[in-house]
Protein backbone atom coordinates (compact mmCIF):
# COMPACT_ATOMS: atom_id res chain seq x y z
CA UNK A 1 0.00 0.00 0.00
CA UNK A 2 1.45 3.38 -0.97
CA UNK A 3 1.78 5.85 1.90
CA UNK A 4 0.51 8.59 -0.32
CA UNK A 5 -2.68 6.62 -0.73
CA UNK A 6 -3.68 7.38 2.83
CA UNK A 7 -5.36 10.50 1.56
CA UNK A 8 -8.04 8.18 0.17
CA UNK A 9 -9.59 7.72 3.57
CA UNK A 10 -10.23 11.15 4.20
CA UNK A 11 -12.58 12.95 3.52
CA UNK A 12 -15.54 14.39 4.88
CA UNK A 13 -17.83 16.67 3.39
CA UNK A 14 -17.53 20.11 2.16
CA UNK A 15 -19.37 22.78 0.24
CA UNK A 16 -19.04 26.51 -0.26
CA UNK A 17 -21.11 29.54 0.21
CA UNK A 18 -24.78 30.05 0.63
CA UNK A 19 -25.91 33.48 -0.51
CA UNK A 20 -29.06 35.53 -0.07
CA UNK A 21 -31.56 35.21 -2.91
CA UNK A 22 -31.24 37.99 -5.44
CA UNK A 23 -34.97 38.33 -6.01
CA UNK A 24 -36.81 40.70 -3.71
CA UNK A 25 -40.16 40.05 -5.32
CA UNK A 26 -40.56 36.47 -4.07
CA UNK A 27 -43.33 36.07 -1.49
CA UNK A 28 -42.09 35.49 2.06
CA UNK A 29 -43.11 32.31 3.83
CA UNK A 30 -44.09 32.09 7.48
CA UNK A 31 -40.80 30.39 8.24
CA UNK A 32 -38.77 33.19 6.68
CA UNK A 33 -40.65 35.86 8.59
CA UNK A 34 -39.60 34.49 11.94
CA UNK A 35 -35.94 33.68 11.35
CA UNK A 36 -33.11 35.18 13.39
CA UNK A 37 -35.15 38.13 14.60
CA UNK A 38 -34.70 39.88 11.26
CA UNK A 39 -37.76 41.69 9.97
CA UNK A 40 -39.42 40.85 6.68
CA UNK A 41 -38.58 44.31 5.42
CA UNK A 42 -34.96 43.90 6.44
CA UNK A 43 -34.66 40.60 4.61
CA UNK A 44 -36.22 42.02 1.48
CA UNK A 45 -33.88 44.97 1.59
CA UNK A 46 -30.94 42.61 2.10
CA UNK A 47 -31.93 40.61 -0.93
CA UNK A 48 -32.36 43.75 -2.97
CA UNK A 49 -28.95 45.01 -1.93
CA UNK A 50 -27.33 41.73 -2.95
CA UNK A 51 -29.07 41.40 -6.31
CA UNK A 52 -27.11 41.79 -9.49
CA UNK A 53 -29.41 44.24 -11.25
CA UNK A 54 -27.52 47.25 -9.90
CA UNK A 55 -30.71 49.16 -9.06
CA UNK A 56 -30.73 51.70 -6.23
CA UNK A 57 -28.04 54.05 -5.13
CA UNK A 58 -24.84 52.86 -3.49
CA UNK A 59 -25.76 54.70 -0.31
CA UNK A 60 -29.13 52.98 -0.10
CA UNK A 61 -27.55 49.58 -0.64
CA UNK A 62 -24.91 50.21 1.96
CA UNK A 63 -27.46 51.40 4.49
CA UNK A 64 -29.74 48.42 3.95
CA UNK A 65 -26.85 45.99 4.12
CA UNK A 66 -25.54 47.51 7.34
CA UNK A 67 -28.96 47.32 9.01
CA UNK A 68 -29.46 43.66 8.16
CA UNK A 69 -25.85 42.71 8.89
CA UNK A 70 -26.04 44.42 12.28
CA UNK A 71 -29.15 42.48 13.21
CA UNK A 72 -27.70 39.19 11.98
CA UNK A 73 -24.37 39.77 13.68
CA UNK A 74 -26.00 40.73 16.95
CA UNK A 75 -28.05 37.56 16.89
CA UNK A 76 -25.08 35.40 15.93
CA UNK A 77 -22.74 36.80 18.58
CA UNK A 78 -25.25 35.88 21.28
CA UNK A 79 -26.22 32.61 19.65
CA UNK A 80 -29.84 33.68 19.44
CA UNK A 81 -31.98 34.86 22.29
CA UNK A 82 -32.22 32.38 25.11
CA UNK A 83 -35.97 32.85 25.32
CA UNK A 84 -36.45 32.23 21.61
CA UNK A 85 -38.79 29.40 20.84
CA UNK A 86 -37.08 26.38 19.30
CA UNK A 87 -37.89 26.32 15.62
CA UNK A 88 -38.67 23.02 13.96
CA UNK A 89 -36.86 21.82 10.81
CA UNK A 90 -38.40 23.01 7.55
CA UNK A 91 -39.17 19.39 6.65
CA UNK A 92 -40.47 16.82 9.12
CA UNK A 93 -41.98 13.35 9.32
CA UNK A 94 -41.72 10.92 6.42
CA UNK A 95 -40.19 13.51 4.12
CA UNK A 96 -37.37 14.18 6.58
CA UNK A 97 -36.83 10.45 7.02
CA UNK A 98 -36.63 10.03 3.25
CA UNK A 99 -34.16 12.90 2.90
CA UNK A 100 -31.95 11.65 5.73
CA UNK A 101 -31.94 8.13 4.26
CA UNK A 102 -30.93 9.51 0.85
CA UNK A 103 -28.21 11.71 2.36
CA UNK A 104 -26.88 8.94 4.61
CA UNK A 105 -26.62 6.55 1.66
CA UNK A 106 -24.93 9.28 -0.40
CA UNK A 107 -22.39 9.74 2.40
CA UNK A 108 -21.89 5.97 2.61
CA UNK A 109 -21.17 5.70 -1.12
CA UNK A 110 -18.67 8.56 -1.14
CA UNK A 111 -16.86 7.30 1.97
CA UNK A 112 -16.90 3.72 0.69
CA UNK A 113 -15.33 4.74 -2.60
CA UNK A 114 -12.51 6.43 -0.69
CA UNK A 115 -11.44 3.20 0.99
CA UNK A 116 -12.67 0.26 -1.08
CA UNK A 117 -9.85 0.63 -3.60
CA UNK A 118 -7.11 -0.02 -1.04
CA UNK A 119 -7.57 -3.81 -0.94
CA UNK A 120 -8.34 -4.03 -4.67
CA UNK A 121 -5.07 -2.37 -5.70
CA UNK A 122 -3.00 -5.58 -5.95
CA UNK A 123 -5.51 -7.11 -8.39
CA UNK A 124 -5.83 -3.86 -10.34
CA UNK A 125 -2.08 -3.37 -10.73
CA UNK A 126 -1.68 -7.03 -11.66
CA UNK A 127 -4.37 -6.87 -14.36
CA UNK A 128 -3.09 -3.68 -15.96
CA UNK A 129 0.61 -4.18 -15.09
CA UNK A 130 0.39 -0.70 -13.59
CA UNK A 131 2.49 -0.70 -10.42
CA UNK A 132 4.11 2.69 -11.31
CA UNK A 133 0.61 4.21 -11.60
CA UNK A 134 -0.72 2.71 -8.36
CA UNK A 135 -0.52 5.99 -6.46
CA UNK A 136 -2.61 7.79 -9.07
CA UNK A 137 -5.38 5.21 -8.93
CA UNK A 138 -6.01 6.47 -5.39
CA UNK A 139 -4.86 10.07 -5.70
CA UNK A 140 -6.98 10.91 -8.77
CA UNK A 141 -10.13 10.60 -6.66
CA UNK A 142 -8.69 12.57 -3.75
CA UNK A 143 -7.31 15.42 -5.87
CA UNK A 144 -10.52 15.98 -7.86
CA UNK A 145 -12.81 15.67 -4.84
CA UNK A 146 -10.76 18.13 -2.79
CA UNK A 147 -10.29 20.66 -5.57
CA UNK A 148 -13.95 20.86 -6.56
CA UNK A 149 -15.49 20.97 -3.09
CA UNK A 150 -15.66 24.78 -3.02
CA UNK A 151 -18.18 25.05 -5.84
CA UNK A 152 -20.97 22.83 -4.52
CA UNK A 153 -22.37 25.01 -1.76
CA UNK A 154 -22.59 28.03 -4.03
CA UNK A 155 -24.16 26.10 -6.88
CA UNK A 156 -26.83 24.50 -4.70
CA UNK A 157 -28.08 27.93 -3.63
CA UNK A 158 -28.12 29.11 -7.24
CA UNK A 159 -29.60 26.04 -8.93
CA UNK A 160 -31.25 24.25 -6.01
CA UNK A 161 -30.19 21.48 -3.61
CA UNK A 162 -31.91 18.69 -5.52
CA UNK A 163 -30.56 19.62 -8.97
CA UNK A 164 -26.97 19.91 -7.79
CA UNK A 165 -27.13 16.73 -5.70
CA UNK A 166 -28.52 14.80 -8.67
CA UNK A 167 -25.73 16.21 -10.84
CA UNK A 168 -23.17 14.99 -8.32
CA UNK A 169 -24.75 11.54 -8.44
CA UNK A 170 -24.55 11.61 -12.25
CA UNK A 171 -20.79 12.30 -12.13
CA UNK A 172 -20.36 9.58 -9.53
CA UNK A 173 -22.23 7.03 -11.64
CA UNK A 174 -20.28 7.97 -14.78
CA UNK A 175 -16.95 7.67 -13.00
CA UNK A 176 -17.87 4.35 -11.39
CA UNK A 177 -19.01 2.83 -14.69
CA UNK A 178 -15.83 3.99 -16.43
CA UNK A 179 -13.72 2.43 -13.66
CA UNK A 180 -15.61 -0.86 -13.85
CA UNK A 181 -15.34 -1.01 -17.64
CA UNK A 182 -11.72 0.16 -17.79
CA UNK A 183 -9.43 -1.47 -20.33
CA UNK A 184 -6.29 0.25 -19.08
CA UNK A 185 -4.91 1.84 -15.94
CA UNK A 186 -5.15 5.32 -17.45
CA UNK A 187 -8.83 4.81 -18.25
CA UNK A 188 -9.39 3.71 -14.66
CA UNK A 189 -7.53 6.78 -13.35
CA UNK A 190 -9.74 9.02 -15.50
CA UNK A 191 -12.81 7.28 -14.09
CA UNK A 192 -11.54 7.80 -10.55
CA UNK A 193 -11.09 11.52 -11.21
CA UNK A 194 -14.65 11.82 -12.56
CA UNK A 195 -16.01 9.85 -9.61
CA UNK A 196 -14.16 12.24 -7.31
CA UNK A 197 -16.06 15.18 -8.80
CA UNK A 198 -19.32 13.47 -7.87
CA UNK A 199 -18.11 12.07 -4.55
CA UNK A 200 -17.15 15.53 -3.37
CA UNK A 201 -20.72 16.70 -3.91
CA UNK A 202 -22.28 13.63 -2.29
CA UNK A 203 -20.41 14.27 0.95
CA UNK A 204 -20.53 18.05 1.06
CA UNK A 205 -24.19 18.47 0.20
CA UNK A 206 -25.22 16.19 3.06
CA UNK A 207 -24.02 18.86 5.49
CA UNK A 208 -25.29 21.77 3.39
CA UNK A 209 -28.83 20.40 3.13
CA UNK A 210 -29.06 19.71 6.87
CA UNK A 211 -27.55 23.09 7.69
CA UNK A 212 -30.15 24.81 5.52
CA UNK A 213 -33.28 23.02 6.76
CA UNK A 214 -32.44 22.35 10.43
CA UNK A 215 -31.71 24.98 13.14
CA UNK A 216 -28.14 24.88 14.44
CA UNK A 217 -29.36 23.84 17.90
CA UNK A 218 -30.81 20.63 16.45
CA UNK A 219 -28.44 19.95 13.55
CA UNK A 220 -25.81 18.04 15.63
CA UNK A 221 -28.28 15.21 16.15
CA UNK A 222 -28.84 14.91 12.39
CA UNK A 223 -25.23 15.45 11.33
CA UNK A 224 -23.98 12.85 13.81
CA UNK A 225 -25.67 10.25 11.63
CA UNK A 226 -23.25 11.13 8.84
CA UNK A 227 -20.28 10.63 11.15
CA UNK A 228 -21.52 7.17 12.07
CA UNK A 229 -22.14 6.27 8.41
CA UNK A 230 -18.68 7.51 7.44
CA UNK A 231 -17.06 5.38 10.15
CA UNK A 232 -18.98 2.28 9.04
CA UNK A 233 -18.08 2.86 5.38
CA UNK A 234 -14.41 3.39 6.26
CA UNK A 235 -14.27 -0.10 7.76
CA UNK A 236 -16.58 -1.74 5.22
CA UNK A 237 -14.59 -0.38 2.25
CA UNK A 238 -11.38 -2.41 2.69
CA UNK A 239 -13.37 -5.51 3.67
CA UNK A 240 -15.68 -5.32 0.65
CA UNK A 241 -12.75 -4.49 -1.61
CA UNK A 242 -10.97 -7.64 -0.49
CA UNK A 243 -14.08 -9.74 -1.08
CA UNK A 244 -14.69 -8.31 -4.56
CA UNK A 245 -11.02 -8.66 -5.53
CA UNK A 246 -10.86 -12.31 -4.44
CA UNK A 247 -14.35 -13.55 -5.30
CA UNK A 248 -16.11 -11.61 -8.07
CA UNK A 249 -13.49 -9.37 -9.68
CA UNK A 250 -12.47 -5.87 -8.65
CA UNK A 251 -14.82 -4.36 -11.26
CA UNK A 252 -17.75 -4.99 -8.93
CA UNK A 253 -16.14 -2.76 -6.36
CA UNK A 254 -17.08 0.07 -8.75
CA UNK A 255 -20.31 -1.33 -10.22
CA UNK A 256 -21.81 -1.56 -6.73
CA UNK A 257 -22.09 2.23 -6.67
CA UNK A 258 -24.76 2.77 -9.37
CA UNK A 259 -26.70 -0.21 -7.99
CA UNK A 260 -27.02 1.51 -4.61
CA UNK A 261 -27.48 4.92 -6.20
CA UNK A 262 -30.65 3.94 -8.09
CA UNK A 263 -32.96 3.97 -5.02
CA UNK A 264 -31.07 6.95 -3.57
CA UNK A 265 -31.85 9.02 -6.66
CA UNK A 266 -35.53 8.08 -6.38
CA UNK A 267 -35.57 9.25 -2.75
CA UNK A 268 -33.94 12.55 -3.69
CA UNK A 269 -36.42 13.21 -6.50
CA UNK A 270 -39.48 12.52 -4.37
CA UNK A 271 -38.48 13.90 -0.97
CA UNK A 272 -35.90 16.67 -1.43
CA UNK A 273 -38.40 19.33 -2.48
CA UNK A 274 -37.42 22.85 -1.46
CA UNK A 275 -38.56 26.07 -3.16
CA UNK A 276 -36.63 26.58 -6.39
CA UNK A 277 -34.19 29.48 -6.65
CA UNK A 278 -35.49 32.44 -8.63
CA UNK A 279 -33.87 34.08 -11.64
CA UNK A 280 -33.19 33.42 -15.30
CA UNK A 281 -30.43 31.16 -16.54
CA UNK A 282 -28.24 34.16 -17.35
CA UNK A 283 -28.84 35.75 -13.94
CA UNK A 284 -27.79 32.52 -12.25
CA UNK A 285 -24.65 32.24 -14.35
CA UNK A 286 -23.69 35.81 -13.42
CA UNK A 287 -23.85 34.88 -9.74
CA UNK A 288 -21.14 32.22 -10.11
CA UNK A 289 -17.67 33.29 -9.01
CA UNK A 290 -15.83 31.68 -11.94
CA UNK A 291 -12.52 33.45 -11.27
CA UNK A 292 -12.51 32.46 -7.61
CA UNK A 293 -13.47 28.87 -8.40
CA UNK A 294 -10.71 28.60 -11.02
CA UNK A 295 -8.10 30.00 -8.63
CA UNK A 296 -8.97 27.72 -5.72
CA UNK A 297 -9.32 24.62 -7.93
CA UNK A 298 -5.93 25.16 -9.58
CA UNK A 299 -4.33 26.01 -6.25
CA UNK A 300 -5.62 22.89 -4.50
CA UNK A 301 -4.74 20.63 -7.45
CA UNK A 302 -1.16 21.95 -7.62
CA UNK A 303 -0.73 21.67 -3.86
CA UNK A 304 -2.10 18.12 -3.83
CA UNK A 305 0.10 17.15 -6.77
CA UNK A 306 3.20 18.38 -4.98
CA UNK A 307 2.29 16.52 -1.80
CA UNK A 308 1.44 13.38 -3.79
CA UNK A 309 4.64 13.42 -5.84
CA UNK A 310 7.00 14.33 -3.01
CA UNK A 311 9.04 11.35 -1.83
CA UNK A 312 7.10 8.99 -4.09
CA UNK A 313 7.37 9.74 -7.79
CA UNK A 314 9.95 12.52 -7.38
CA UNK A 315 12.36 13.59 -4.63
CA UNK A 316 11.15 16.42 -2.39
CA UNK A 317 13.89 18.66 -3.78
CA UNK A 318 12.95 18.00 -7.42
CA UNK A 319 11.75 20.83 -9.66
CA UNK A 320 8.38 19.15 -10.24
CA UNK A 321 7.54 19.02 -6.53
CA UNK A 322 8.88 22.47 -5.65
CA UNK A 323 7.16 24.18 -8.60
CA UNK A 324 3.86 22.44 -7.85
CA UNK A 325 3.93 23.48 -4.20
CA UNK A 326 4.91 27.07 -5.00
CA UNK A 327 2.25 27.42 -7.70
CA UNK A 328 -0.34 25.90 -5.37
CA UNK A 329 0.44 28.43 -2.65
CA UNK A 330 0.49 31.34 -5.11
CA UNK A 331 -2.90 30.41 -6.56
CA UNK A 332 -4.41 30.01 -3.09
CA UNK A 333 -3.03 33.41 -2.05
CA UNK A 334 -4.43 34.82 -5.27
CA UNK A 335 -7.77 33.21 -4.45
CA UNK A 336 -7.90 35.07 -1.12
CA UNK A 337 -7.12 38.38 -2.86
CA UNK A 338 -9.76 37.68 -5.50
CA UNK A 339 -12.39 36.94 -2.87
CA UNK A 340 -11.45 40.13 -1.06
CA UNK A 341 -11.79 42.47 -4.03
CA UNK A 342 -13.60 41.11 -7.10
CA UNK A 343 -16.80 39.04 -6.85
CA UNK A 344 -20.18 40.40 -5.75
CA UNK A 345 -20.94 36.97 -4.28
CA UNK A 346 -17.59 35.43 -3.26
CA UNK A 347 -17.44 31.72 -2.59
CA UNK A 348 -15.37 32.52 0.52
CA UNK A 349 -16.41 35.82 2.12
CA UNK A 350 -13.54 37.04 4.28
CA UNK A 351 -15.97 38.23 6.97
CA UNK A 352 -15.95 34.64 8.22
CA UNK A 353 -12.48 35.14 9.64
CA UNK A 354 -13.69 37.99 11.82
CA UNK A 355 -15.61 35.44 13.87
CA UNK A 356 -13.44 34.08 16.65
CA UNK A 357 -14.85 30.56 16.93
CA UNK A 358 -15.01 30.03 13.17
CA UNK A 359 -11.37 31.08 12.74
CA UNK A 360 -10.19 28.94 15.66
CA UNK A 361 -12.06 25.84 14.51
CA UNK A 362 -10.72 26.22 10.96
CA UNK A 363 -7.17 26.47 12.29
CA UNK A 364 -7.80 23.49 14.56
CA UNK A 365 -9.05 21.45 11.60
CA UNK A 366 -5.69 21.74 9.87
CA UNK A 367 -3.83 20.04 12.72
CA UNK A 368 -6.79 17.77 13.50
CA UNK A 369 -6.65 16.55 9.91
CA UNK A 370 -2.90 16.06 10.25
CA UNK A 371 -3.37 13.63 13.15
CA UNK A 372 -6.60 12.06 11.96
CA UNK A 373 -5.16 9.33 9.75
CA UNK A 374 -2.74 7.66 12.15
CA UNK A 375 -4.98 4.65 12.85
CA UNK A 376 -6.51 4.62 9.38
CA UNK A 377 -3.22 4.43 7.51
CA UNK A 378 -0.12 3.98 9.68
CA UNK A 379 -1.69 1.52 12.10
CA UNK A 380 -2.39 -0.99 9.27
CA UNK A 381 1.19 -0.49 8.04
CA UNK A 382 2.45 -1.22 11.53
CA UNK A 383 0.34 -4.39 11.68
CA UNK A 384 1.62 -5.60 8.31
CA UNK A 385 5.23 -5.26 9.49
CA UNK A 386 4.88 -6.58 13.05
CA UNK A 387 2.09 -9.14 12.62
CA UNK A 388 2.23 -9.83 8.86
CA UNK A 389 -1.46 -8.90 8.76
CA UNK A 390 -3.30 -8.93 5.46
CA UNK A 391 -5.26 -5.91 4.27
CA UNK A 392 -8.52 -7.53 5.37
CA UNK A 393 -7.10 -8.44 8.77
CA UNK A 394 -5.82 -4.88 9.22
CA UNK A 395 -9.27 -3.61 8.32
CA UNK A 396 -10.80 -5.79 11.01
CA UNK A 397 -8.41 -4.27 13.55
CA UNK A 398 -9.84 -0.85 12.66
CA UNK A 399 -13.35 -1.90 13.67
CA UNK A 400 -12.66 -1.01 17.30
CA UNK A 401 -11.56 2.50 16.27
CA UNK A 402 -14.57 3.05 14.04
CA UNK A 403 -16.89 1.65 16.68
CA UNK A 404 -15.57 4.25 19.11
CA UNK A 405 -16.07 7.00 16.53
CA UNK A 406 -19.60 5.87 15.62
CA UNK A 407 -20.97 5.55 19.15
CA UNK A 408 -19.50 8.77 20.52
CA UNK A 409 -20.45 10.75 17.40
CA UNK A 410 -24.09 9.80 17.87
CA UNK A 411 -23.89 10.39 21.62
CA UNK A 412 -22.31 13.83 21.31
CA UNK A 413 -24.78 14.85 18.61
CA UNK A 414 -27.79 13.92 20.73
CA UNK A 415 -26.43 15.52 23.90
CA UNK A 416 -25.48 18.76 22.16
CA UNK A 417 -28.94 19.01 20.58
CA UNK A 418 -30.53 18.45 24.01
CA UNK A 419 -28.26 20.67 26.11
CA UNK A 420 -26.94 23.27 23.67
CA UNK A 421 -23.46 22.80 25.17
CA UNK A 422 -20.58 21.87 22.87
CA UNK A 423 -17.25 23.23 24.19
CA UNK A 424 -16.85 20.53 26.90
CA UNK A 425 -17.26 17.86 24.22
CA UNK A 426 -14.59 19.53 22.08
CA UNK A 427 -12.10 19.79 24.94
CA UNK A 428 -12.77 16.31 26.32
CA UNK A 429 -12.74 14.75 22.85
CA UNK A 430 -9.45 16.30 21.79
CA UNK A 431 -7.87 15.46 25.16
CA UNK A 432 -8.91 11.80 24.80
CA UNK A 433 -7.77 11.86 21.18
CA UNK A 434 -4.33 13.16 22.20
CA UNK A 435 -4.17 10.46 24.89
CA UNK A 436 -4.88 7.85 22.23
CA UNK A 437 -2.17 9.30 19.99
CA UNK A 438 0.27 9.05 22.89
CA UNK A 439 -0.69 5.45 23.58
CA UNK A 440 0.26 4.46 20.03
CA UNK A 441 3.87 5.18 21.00
CA UNK A 442 3.64 2.25 23.44
CA UNK A 443 3.14 -0.23 20.59
CA UNK A 444 6.35 -2.22 20.30
CA UNK A 445 7.50 -5.30 18.43
CA UNK A 446 5.31 -7.70 20.43
CA UNK A 447 2.02 -5.90 21.19
CA UNK A 448 -0.75 -7.65 23.10
CA UNK A 449 -4.19 -8.09 21.56
CA UNK A 450 -5.59 -5.88 24.30
CA UNK A 451 -3.36 -3.00 23.19
CA UNK A 452 -4.19 -3.54 19.52
CA UNK A 453 -7.90 -3.29 20.30
CA UNK A 454 -7.93 -0.84 23.21
CA UNK A 455 -5.66 1.91 21.90
CA UNK A 456 -7.64 2.47 18.66
CA UNK A 457 -10.84 2.58 20.76
CA UNK A 458 -9.41 5.42 22.87
CA UNK A 459 -8.41 7.30 19.73
CA UNK A 460 -11.83 6.72 18.14
CA UNK A 461 -13.74 7.86 21.22
CA UNK A 462 -11.80 11.13 21.17
CA UNK A 463 -12.44 11.70 17.48
CA UNK A 464 -16.15 10.95 17.83
CA UNK A 465 -16.59 13.29 20.79
CA UNK A 466 -14.79 16.23 19.15
CA UNK A 467 -15.45 16.04 15.42
CA UNK A 468 -19.13 17.01 15.28
CA UNK A 469 -18.99 19.61 18.11
CA UNK A 470 -16.11 21.38 16.36
CA UNK A 471 -18.27 21.74 13.26
CA UNK A 472 -21.23 22.96 15.34
CA UNK A 473 -18.99 25.52 17.06
CA UNK A 474 -17.85 26.91 13.71
CA UNK A 475 -21.33 26.91 12.15
CA UNK A 476 -22.95 28.57 15.14
CA UNK A 477 -20.51 31.48 15.16
CA UNK A 478 -21.41 32.70 11.66
CA UNK A 479 -24.55 34.07 10.05
CA UNK A 480 -27.01 31.52 8.69
CA UNK A 481 -26.22 32.41 5.07
CA UNK A 482 -22.53 31.60 5.71
CA UNK A 483 -23.03 28.14 7.19
CA UNK A 484 -22.45 26.35 3.87
CA UNK A 485 -19.24 28.31 3.30
CA UNK A 486 -18.00 27.59 6.79
CA UNK A 487 -18.81 23.89 6.43
CA UNK A 488 -16.91 23.72 3.16
CA UNK A 489 -13.84 25.41 4.55
CA UNK A 490 -14.02 23.22 7.63
CA UNK A 491 -13.93 20.02 5.58
CA UNK A 492 -11.50 21.28 2.96
CA UNK A 493 -8.84 22.45 5.41
CA UNK A 494 -9.13 19.13 7.26
CA UNK A 495 -8.48 17.29 4.01
CA UNK A 496 -5.56 19.54 3.11
CA UNK A 497 -4.26 19.16 6.65
CA UNK A 498 -4.34 15.40 6.30
CA UNK A 499 -2.40 15.56 3.04
CA UNK A 500 0.21 17.85 4.59
CA UNK A 501 0.42 15.75 7.75
CA UNK A 502 0.85 12.52 5.83
CA UNK A 503 3.56 14.07 3.67
CA UNK A 504 5.42 15.26 6.79
CA UNK A 505 5.01 11.91 8.52
CA UNK A 506 6.10 9.90 5.49
CA UNK A 507 9.16 12.09 5.02
CA UNK A 508 10.03 11.63 8.70
CA UNK A 509 9.56 7.87 8.42
CA UNK A 510 11.84 7.63 5.42
CA UNK A 511 14.49 9.92 6.91
CA UNK A 512 14.58 7.94 10.16
CA UNK A 513 14.35 4.52 8.51
CA UNK A 514 17.09 5.10 5.90
CA UNK A 515 20.08 5.14 8.30
CA UNK A 516 18.65 2.18 10.21
CA UNK A 517 18.38 0.21 6.97
CA UNK A 518 21.94 1.20 6.03
CA UNK A 519 23.17 -0.08 9.40
CA UNK A 520 21.37 -3.40 8.87
CA UNK A 521 22.85 -3.77 5.38
CA UNK A 522 26.32 -3.15 6.79
CA UNK A 523 25.66 -5.83 9.40
CA UNK A 524 24.04 -8.34 7.01
CA UNK A 525 25.48 -7.58 3.52
CA UNK A 526 24.25 -10.89 2.11
CA UNK A 527 20.63 -9.77 2.65
CA UNK A 528 21.03 -6.31 1.10
CA UNK A 529 18.19 -6.55 -1.43
CA UNK A 530 15.77 -8.05 1.07
CA UNK A 531 16.55 -5.43 3.71
CA UNK A 532 16.22 -2.57 1.21
CA UNK A 533 12.77 -3.79 0.15
CA UNK A 534 11.25 -2.81 3.52
CA UNK A 535 10.88 0.76 2.19
CA UNK A 536 8.16 -0.38 -0.24
CA UNK A 537 7.26 -3.88 0.93
CA UNK A 538 6.07 -4.02 4.53
CA UNK A 539 5.93 -7.81 4.32
CA UNK A 540 9.71 -8.06 3.83
CA UNK A 541 10.40 -9.28 7.40
CA UNK A 542 8.13 -12.25 6.70
CA UNK A 543 9.82 -13.42 3.51
CA UNK A 544 10.15 -17.23 3.60
CA UNK A 545 13.66 -18.33 4.52
CA UNK A 546 14.75 -14.97 5.91
CA UNK A 547 17.39 -15.28 8.67
CA UNK A 548 15.95 -14.70 12.14
CA UNK A 549 18.44 -11.92 12.92
CA UNK A 550 17.46 -10.05 9.76
CA UNK A 551 13.76 -10.61 10.54
CA UNK A 552 14.15 -9.16 14.03
CA UNK A 553 16.36 -6.31 12.84
CA UNK A 554 13.86 -5.20 10.19
CA UNK A 555 10.95 -5.19 12.62
CA UNK A 556 12.97 -3.34 15.28
CA UNK A 557 14.06 -0.70 12.75
CA UNK A 558 10.58 -0.15 11.36
CA UNK A 559 8.91 0.06 14.77
CA UNK A 560 11.53 2.53 16.03
CA UNK A 561 10.93 4.74 12.99
CA UNK A 562 7.17 4.43 13.40
CA UNK A 563 7.51 5.82 16.92
CA UNK A 564 8.87 9.03 15.38
CA UNK A 565 5.76 9.21 13.22
CA UNK A 566 3.51 8.69 16.25
CA UNK A 567 5.27 11.55 18.05
CA UNK A 568 4.65 13.86 15.09
CA UNK A 569 0.94 13.02 15.13
CA UNK A 570 0.94 13.54 18.89
CA UNK A 571 2.36 17.04 18.40
CA UNK A 572 -0.36 17.83 15.86
CA UNK A 573 -2.98 16.67 18.35
CA UNK A 574 -1.49 18.84 21.08
CA UNK A 575 -1.66 21.92 18.86
CA UNK A 576 -5.32 21.17 18.12
CA UNK A 577 -6.08 21.03 21.85
CA UNK A 578 -4.28 24.31 22.59
CA UNK A 579 -6.10 26.14 19.77
CA UNK A 580 -9.49 24.84 20.94
CA UNK A 581 -8.97 26.27 24.43
CA UNK A 582 -9.37 29.81 23.07
CA UNK A 583 -12.91 29.18 21.78
CA UNK A 584 -15.71 30.93 23.64
CA UNK A 585 -19.17 29.67 24.44
CA UNK A 586 -21.92 30.95 22.12
CA UNK A 587 -25.39 29.44 22.76
CA UNK A 588 -26.60 27.42 19.82
CA UNK A 589 -28.93 29.23 17.42
CA UNK A 590 -32.49 28.00 17.88
CA UNK A 591 -33.99 29.37 14.67
CA UNK A 592 -33.23 29.18 10.99
CA UNK A 593 -31.66 32.21 9.39
CA UNK A 594 -32.46 34.02 6.21
CA UNK A 595 -30.69 31.69 3.83
CA UNK A 596 -32.48 28.52 4.79
CA UNK A 597 -34.90 28.92 1.94
CA UNK A 598 -33.69 28.96 -1.61
Automatic annotation (TrEMBL):
Where it sits in the cell: the answer is: Endomembrane system
Organism's domain of life? Eukaryota
Ranges for domain Major facilitator superfamily (MFS) profile? 99-591
Specify where the region named Disordered lies, as residue ranges: 22-87
Which Gene3D superfamilies does the UniProt record give?
Answer: MFS general substrate transporter like domains (1.20.1250.20), Multidrug resistance protein D (1.20.1720.10)
Q: Report if keyword Transmembrane helix is assigned.
A: yes
What's the protein called, per UniProt?
Answer: Major facilitator superfamily (MFS) profile domain-containing protein
Provide ranges: composition bias, Low complexity. Answer: 44-57
Instruction: Give a GO molecular function annotation for the protein.
Output: transmembrane transporter activity
Report keywords, A-Z.
Membrane, Transmembrane, Transmembrane helix, Transport
Keyword Transmembrane included in the entry's annotation: yes
Q: Which stretches does UniProt call biased (Basic and acidic residues)?
A: 72-87
Q: Which Pfam families match?
A: MFS_1
Transmembrane stretches, start-end: 97-121, 133-152, 164-183, 189-210, 222-240, 252-276, 288-307, 319-338, 359-383, 395-416, 423-444, 450-471, 483-505, 565-583
Annotated membrane topology: Multi-pass membrane protein
Q: Name one GO cellular component term.
A: plasma membrane
Q: Record's InterPro entries?
A: MFS (IPR011701), MFS_dom (IPR020846), MFS_trans_sf (IPR036259)
Amino acid sequence: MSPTGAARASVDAASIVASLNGSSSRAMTDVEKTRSGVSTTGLKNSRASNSSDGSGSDNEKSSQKDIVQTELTKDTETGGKDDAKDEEPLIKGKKMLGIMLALALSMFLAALDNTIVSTMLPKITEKFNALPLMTWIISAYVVSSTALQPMYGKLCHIYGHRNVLLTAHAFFIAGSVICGASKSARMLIAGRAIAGVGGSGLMSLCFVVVGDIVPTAKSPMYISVFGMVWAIASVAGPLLGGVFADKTGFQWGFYINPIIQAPVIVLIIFFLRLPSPQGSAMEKIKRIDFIGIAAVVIGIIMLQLGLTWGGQEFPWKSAAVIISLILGMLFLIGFVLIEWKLPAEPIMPLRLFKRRNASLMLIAQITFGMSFFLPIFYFPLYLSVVKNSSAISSGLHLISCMLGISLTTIMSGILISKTGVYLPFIWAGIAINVTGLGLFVLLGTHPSNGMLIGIPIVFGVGVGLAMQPMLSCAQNSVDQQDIATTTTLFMTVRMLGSAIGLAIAQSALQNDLTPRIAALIAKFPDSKELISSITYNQGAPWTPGIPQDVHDGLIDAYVASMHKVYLIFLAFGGITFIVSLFAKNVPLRKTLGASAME
